[in-house]
Fold:
Amino acid sequence: MKDRLKQFRKALGLKQREIAERLGVRVGNVGDWEAGSKPMPKTRVYQLCKEFRVRREWLESGEGEMFEPEPDVRPLEEYDDVDVIKESIRRIYNLLPENKRGAFRDYLSKLTDDDKRSEKKIVGIETMQGGTVNQNFGAE
Structure:
């Protein structure tokens, strides 16, 4: 697994420090895992796979593709069903790393702040009111 950890990190153009920050561990931990001097805990394997969309099977065995496939994200105007739109926005939000979610919420809020009249046209649903994202997105 140690070689694949480094391979994945290099594929994304990240430094060990950036991986450590996203996982909430010391840089030395990432270095130890890549060097093979310490095993990567299963909880961190799971976290890394989720955070970076790395396939666990590939990371552990080298089989299959390195990354999970990109989600099917279509323009909102292609959706007819309000629930489908809500789910799509939730799915995109959940795929984002924790440190990017606030920016996503801010962006959605800015869409309505820029032009209140186009609120429903842009989003297609009453997800946003008064420039804020409702409780489904965890923002106030």
About this structure: The beta strands are 128-129, 132-133. The helical segments are 2-11, 16-23, 27-35, 42-52, 56-61, 82-95, 98-114, 119-123.
